[in-house]
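I hope you will forgive my troubling you with a question about protein structure. Here, with my thanks, is the record as I have it:
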Amino acid sequence: MASALTVFLLEGSYPKPSISVSPGGVIPVGGNVTIRCRHQRLDMRFLLYKAGDGNYLNYTDPAGSEAQFPITSARREQSGNYTCRYSNRTGPAAFSEPRDPVQIIVAEFTG
């Protein structure tokens, strides 16, 4: 007889992280931009999401309370709204609420 494994995801177990993007404004095609997420806890995993994508795009386990998600050689399809959340690394899965999104616009400049 097969046994069922039940996984509990505790949504909203932690406060929302902060999120910022640098540089702000419109990013030229081929340019670089960094999304930074911060929280007040240590030993947490950050997950980066893009609106419209079902799963997270990337994750990192920073040593401190800030994660950096660089986007290098930006392409137009990377334009969009990004958000992040964090979770514990061990034990039952518990996640923060996602942060309100930041917008990245990648565009070609004509001169």
Summary: The beta strands are 10-14, 18-22, 26-28, 33-38, 44-50, 58-60, 66-71, 80-88, 94-96, 102-107.
